[in-house]
Design goal:
7-stranded mixed beta sheet; transferase; alpha/beta; 11 helices; single chain; DNA_methylase_N6_adenine_CS
Length: about 325
C-alpha cells in the first residue's frame, strides 16, 4: 500500500549511512518485501518479518530464495487440469472477486502446489498472490461485485488469472539472485523478535490515519488466505467479501499507537534504527521525533515528497504527502 519501491534510493542511502559495514538487518514490517530485497542487494543478511502470512511467502520466494526457479514443466503442470476435486475458491468467492474460470484456476493450481515444497512452492504461491493482486482493481479486497466502475483499461484487468500466473512466475524468475550472505524470514508480532541480534533495524509500521483505519487484514485477506489455501482460517461468512478476522495490535488504534512506538523504540534501543512514516498520519512528526529522541538521543529526520498508489482519483489529495525517514544511530 505504501509504494515503498519509490523510496528505495533514499532508504539505500540511509542504510549505508547507519550501517556501512553491513551485517544483520531486520525488516520488521516487511509487507511486499521490496525493502528486504533492497537490503539483500546491499549485502545485508536480512530477516523479513511480518505479522501476516503472505508477506512471509513473498519474502521466501524473492529474498531468502537464492537460485530456485520453476521449470517450464512445473508451470505447465500447475496450469493443467486439477489433481483433485477441491472447490473452495469457487464455492466461497462466487460472484465476489473473480470470474468462475479464474476461481476454478485457483482451486486447480492449488491442487498441484499442495504437492510441492521448499522455495519452488514459495515461488508458485507468491506468483499466485501477485496474480490475484494484479487482477483485482486497486489491488485490495475490500470491493466486490460489479467492478466495471474501476475498469480504467489496464491490461492487468484483461488478463485471466492463469495468464497472470505465467507472467508473474517469469517476474519472480528475473528477480531471483544469489546474495552474498543467507537471508531468513519470520512471521509474528514485532514484539516477539529478538532485540539485540541486529546491526540495523528498519521500521515501517502501519500508519495510523487521521480517518479510516490501517487494517491490512481487511484489505488483503484474500491474499492471506490464498497463501495457505485458507487452511486453518476462520472465515467471516456474514461479510460480503468473506473476510478474515482483524488482527488487532497497538498500532491499530490512535489511542494506543504512541505507546506502541515507545515500546518499539525501547525494544531496539541498542540498534541503529531507520523509521519510515507518513507526514499525514498519527502521531505527527514532532511526537515521533520526541519519542525516538527519548530512547536514542540523536535523531536525524529526512523528508521525501511521496505519492501513494492508492486513491488515484483527482480528489484524492491525501495520497500526496511527505515520507519521513527518521535515522537514529
Amino acid at each position: 500500500m505504501g509504494s515503498k519501491h519509490r523510496l528505495l534510493p533514499h532508504l539505500a542511502q540511509a542504510f549505508a549511512d547507519l550501517a556501512p559495514g553491513r551485517g544483520r538487518a531486520l525488516d520488521a514490517f516487511s509487507g511486499s518485501g521490496v525493502v528486504s530485497y533492497l537490503l539483500k542487494h546491499q549485502g545485508f543478511a536480512v530477516r523479513s518479518n511480518d505479522y501476516l502470512g503472505f508477506p512471509g511467502v513473498v519474502a521466501a520466494a524473492g529474498v531468502v530464495n537464492d537460485d530456485v526457479r520453476l521449470t517450464d514443466e512445473d508451470v505447465e503442470r500447475i496450469c493443467s487440469p486439477a489433481l483433485d476435486d477441491r472447490d473452495f475458491c469457487r464455492r466461497t468467492f462466487d460472484g465476489v472477486f473473480f470470474t468462475p474460470d479464474d476461481l476454478a484456476f485457483l482451486d486447480s493450481a492449488w491442487s498441484h502446489v499442495a504437492t510441492m515444497s521448499g522455495h519452488a512452492r514459495s515461488v508458485a504461491v507468491a506468483a499466485l498472490c501477485l496474480a490475484a493482486a494484479r487482477r483485482q482493481p486497486r489491488g485490495v479486497f475490500t470491493i466486490s461485485g460489479d467492478l466495471s466502475r474501476y475498469d480504467d483499461g489496464r491490461r492487468d484487468l484483461r488478463l485471466s488469472l492463469r495468464e497472470h500466473f505465467v507472467e508473474r512466475v517469469a517476474d519472480y524468475h528475473r528477480a531471483v539472485f544469489t546474495g552474498p550472505v543467507p537471508c531468513s524470514v519470520s512471521t509474528g508480532e514485532v514484539g516477539e523478535v529478538e532485540p539485540g541480534a541486529w546491526d540495523l533495524v528498519y521500521l515501517d509500521p502501519p500508519y495510523a490515519p487521521v480517518s479510516d483505519d490501517n487494517d491490512y487484514t481487511k484489505r488483503f485477506h484474500f491474499l492471506e488466505g490464498l497463501s495457505r489455501y485458507w487452511e486453518g482460517d476462520e472465515i467471516m461468512w456474514e461479510t460480503r467479501t468473506r473476510k478474515l478476522p482483524k488482527r488487532v495490535t497497538k498500532f491499530s488504534s490512535r489511542r494506543t499507537i504512541e505507546a506502541a512506538f515507545g515500546e518499539l523504540f525501547e525494544q531496539f534501543r541498542a540498534v541503529p534504527l531507520v523509521l519510515s512514516y507518513s507526514s499525514h498520519a498519527l502521531p505527527d512528526r514532532a511526537t515521533l521525533e520526541g519519542l525516538l529522541r527519548e530512547v536514542k538521543g540523536e535523531v536525524e529526520v529526512r523528508t521525501v515528497p511521496h505519492t501513494y498508489s492508492y486513491g488515484t482519483h483527482r480528489t484524492a489529495v491525501r495520497r500526496r504527502v511527505d515520507e519521513l525517514l527518521l535515522l537514529a544511530p
